[in-house]
Every structure is written in C-alpha cells, then in structure tokens.
Amino acid sequence: MRKLLWEPSAERKQAANMTRFIAFVNQKYGLDFSNFNQLYDWSVTRNADFWAAMWEFGGIRASRPYEAVVTDFEDMIGSKWFTGAELNFAENLLRYRDDRMALIFKGEGQPSVRLTYAQLYDQVARLAASLRRMGVQAGDRVAGFMPNMLHTPIAMLAATSIGAVWSSCSPDFGIKGVLDRFGQIRPKVLFTANGYFYNGKQHDSLERVAGVIKEIPSIERVVVVPYTEANPDLAMVPGAVLYADFLAKEDGLEIEFAQLPFDHPVYIMYSSGTTGLPKCMVHGAGGTLIQHLKELMLHTDLKREDTIFYYTTCGWMMWNWLISSLAVGATLLLYDGSPFYPDAGGLWQLAQDEKISIFGTSAKYLAAVEKAGVKPGSEYDLTPLKAVLSTGSPLSVESFEFVYREIKQDLCLSSISGGTDIVSCFALGNPIGPVYAGELQCRGLGMKVQSFDANGRPVLNQKGELVCTASFPSMPIYFWDDPDGEKYRKAYFDVYPNVWRHGDFIEINDDGGVVIYGRSDATLNPGGVRIGTAEIYRQVEALPEILDSLVVGQEWDNDVRVVLFVKPAPGVEFNEALVNKIKSAIRENTTPRHVPARVIPVADIPYTISGKKVEMAVRDIIHNREVSNRDALANPEALELYRNQPALQS
C-alpha cells in the first residue's frame, strides 16, 4: 500500500516553473495539457518538440541557431542534437553579471566567503586571460584536484570559456587514483589547493601533486590556491605558481567566449573504477547545459531567489550539476569538509545560517542523521527550506518518513537517480506532484525510461532493468581513448541493441513513480528469484542496533545464498538474539527468500569516495577474486575484513 506523505498546495503548484512550462508548451504547440503525466508522455513521443521547447524556455544563448533539433534520432549512439548551433557553456552560466550573490563558500571551521555575479564574472575573466596567455586552447584539458571552494568553479568557467575541457577529482584521492584518471586525459594545467580540512584535521595535497606531475608530463603548470596556510611552500612541485601570481592583474576584462558546436566537449567524468581502470566519459557542452536547465528549473523548481546547496566533492557529478545553477541566477552554497563537523547537526546549522531553500544530500547522510538523534526541524530554523534532494543510493521508506517527521512537513522530498554516465538523472522530483514513501516521483522529461523484464519487454508494477529506449542530449559524446566506440557500446548497449541499459533494478508504477531496488549487477538471485539489495537494507538499517550493513550473494552448492554483513552500533553486542531479530525483521517485512543464510559482524563497510557501497568488490573478495582498483574506495582497508571469513566456509 503506497503511503502519501506530501502534496503541494494550489499556490505552490501555480507558482512552479513546471506549471509555467506546461502553459508555455500549450501555447507554443496548441496543446491542452493540465498535468505532469500528460507533459511527460508528450515529451517522450515528440522528443524533438520537447527539447526545442526546453531550449527556448531555458533561454539558451547561442551565437548561431540550430538547424535541426536532432538527426538520426532512431540511432541512439549515432544521433546528433541541435546540429549547426554554436554556443559557449561558460557564457550560459555567466548570463547574470549583477550584484546578486552567486557563490557562498563555507569551508570546515572557516568563515563564509561570498562572491556576487559581477565579482564572479571579473574573476573568471582574469583567469581566462591568464590561461589564454599560457597557450590554453579549445580542446586542451584543464584539471582540478581541488576542495569544493570558490576557486574551483572559477577555474572550470575560465577553462570552458576558452573551449578547454574541465575534469576534476576529489583531493582525498591517493596518487594512483589521480593517475588512473588524469593520466589518461593528459591535462595541460592542474589547479590544486595546498591542502584541505576534514573532520577537524588538516590534510596536505602538495606531496601527492608532486607525485602526480612526475608521472604526467603533459602538465605544464600547477596553479596552487593557498587554503590551509597562507604561504605554502611550493618547492616540491616543479612548475607550480600561486593562484594570485597566476591571475591576470587587469580589471574590467571582457571574456572572449569561444563559440563552439553544441557537442563540443565540456567535461570528462569518470566511472568509479572499482572493476578496473576508470572509464573516461566525455560530455558535450550543449547536452549538459540543456539537461541541467531542465532538471534545475522544472524538476527542482530552482529560481533566482533560491539558495541551493548540495553536499558533494568536486569529483562527484552532483558538483557539475550544482554549478549549472548559475545559469538560473540562484545563489550556490559550496561546503567543503565533513558533514558531521563540528557535530551531527553541522549542515543544518549551515542551512539555518545561510537560509538554504534547496538542500541536497545523500540517502546515507539522512539515515546517519536519524541514527545520531538529530531533529533538524525543531533544533534549527528551516523556514526558507522548500526542497530536500537525496541521491547516491535508494532512499528508504523510513528515511522518507524521517524527513517529513523531523525536518519539515511542507517540502518536496525528491529522491533522484541517474549517474555520472549521463551527468544527470533518469528519475527525479516533480514539484507539482505528490510524494509517496520510498518512491522517486517521476521519470525525467524527455527521458524514455522503462523497466524491462527478463525477456526484454517493458513492464509496469514489477521489477526489471532500468533502460532508456530513446536518445537524449546528455548521453556521453564518446569515451576518451575509445576510437572505435567499443568501450562505449559495451558499457550500455551490449544487452539490448540500441537501448541504453543503465544497470539499476527498478519498478515503475501506473502513476509513473519509480522504486529503485539497487544495482542490477549486485542483485541477489537465490533460487533464481531476483532480489534488490535495497529491500534488505531498508529492514536492517532501521534497527537501532545496526549502524550500517552490506549484502551480497555467495555462490554455494550450485545456487546463490544471501550473506549479510552488519556493523553494529557502538556498545551493541553481536549475538544470536541480534541475528534472530535481524532475520525476523527481514522475514516479516519482505519474504522468506530475503532472509540471509549468514549474518556476519564486521568493523566497517567499504564505500567508494562518492559514498556508494561496494557490493561487487566484497563479492569478489569472498570468492577469492582480486579487486583491481582499491584507490576508488574511501576506505580500501575495510575490504580485508571480508577475506577468509570462517562463517562462509560451510
């Protein structure tokens, strides 16, 4: 039985960008839509008309108009969007140049720093001039090994204004993790800070940067932002220069925005790399821009008066998504540090202080806040807050209920899901629609997302593979160093011809709501019945005795048995009574097939740096297979806790 948690008021619906867009489409095409589902169905049957409307509604600036919205639409890989158009990504993000606040940076334990749109434009102009003077051209790669600070979007915008391609990874990556990424794309310039703060500790970055540039000879210049100290020693980093010394000194510069094709590369993003060398996914400027405008304006209801925050590092696609909010003229809040510093309410204090209206985070964070006993709604003034966004993993029913019980009753809780692969979402929020516990409200407009059964047929109200059966603008334009496109095809199109298979296990209901059960490659298959890992996590992690958990399938006796690893809460004794409680909770709320054959205590659960559980790596460990790329993990040492577990030998 679906549980309704929230519906927008009539006033809220009337004021929503989505409502304005429906009226715009009705007028432009002579239609009579009155709700989201009508709009969605049209958007995936008249794709070209939808994206043309979004181009106009989003106010995309182009020096040359497009000749065709899409060519070769029936060929997912071969289709081309907005052919003939010429534009610049950074120019579209810098369309506002007034004294409204553009960026607020709050570093852990540091005072906030602010930048208006006029100041942002000036800073980008000066840095772009410096990059041009050192010879950076369109197509060159510029990389960031940076905290989530003001200088990072400035560097990205300066690079992309020239037509250079931006790529970044988080400063908590080890040398090998950085080399696995930047070593493939061979950047010309590297931006870094001298260090960063996390959980009350100061961490140095320059020693790792020195190791990186020894191995990547293409890097001609390292630009260092002083952060953890005012005058860092750059002696160990050849070719390094302080940011202030690199920045052009002139005031009042105009940016020379390079006018480039719609599909000119803007970002290089990386797969997690847990199963080998990370794939380098190249995203086009126009596709990224129009998709982000759609998601921010329509699905998130972002407006100029909003302050939007997403807890993210610069190595996660949510950073790229957040920065596109500049194109809407909103205020972006950048935070770098631990989400639990100085305490579990730290980010909610920030929400109060900076009057955040759209608060983005992860399912893991919301569950941790609840476990920590924080009650943000009663402990902080969250009056401006109108939306909470969650991604990274499926948001449990219990976390949905926690948000409405302990954060705020009147807000749009949008669980969103997509990926680095598309630098955007397949399913996300609908500000004019209801929120049901455990459900993503809708599929993205223009995204023909379906659930395929085992026979490759679309199904409703039953679990299946998440697929997208029609082309969309934010597909990668190609993979780096993949001249014949074989890596690209193998990643998404090797199961269903001409259909994007994303690798999530989902269910779509009659209303268009989506439930995600976890990664399909991590799906459990005891007795031939497919079970999503999220179904088990929901039951286990609701128990106060359990801090975290991870479930995998172990090949055993010509079948697969379910193995559950649990991290007990501090002070909790792991014993048979707890095992029985765990199994009972799973059995009573799911099916007997979900009940694990083994429940094993562990001291830690391994995660990627972007906060995703690594079920595949643990599955490899328990089957004595090698895990090839541990640098993609936030805590790689945790994997050894799973090796040679006695309970798995019988």
From TrEMBL:
Signal peptide: none annotated. InterPro entries: Acac_CoA_synth (IPR005914), AMP-bd_C_sf (IPR045851), AMP-binding_CS (IPR020845), AMP-dep_synth/lig_dom (IPR000873), ANL_N_sf (IPR042099). It holds the Pfam family AMP-binding. Residues 92-467 form the AMP-dependent synthetase/ligase domain. GO terms for biological process: lipid metabolic process. Coiled coil: none annotated. Keywords: ATP-binding, Ligase, Nucleotide-binding. GO terms for molecular function: acetoacetate-CoA ligase activity; ATP binding. Belongs to the ATP-dependent AMP-binding enzyme family. This is Acetoacetate-CoA ligase. It comes from Desulfotomaculum copahuensis. The lineage of its organism: Bacteria, Bacillati, Bacillota, Clostridia, Eubacteriales.
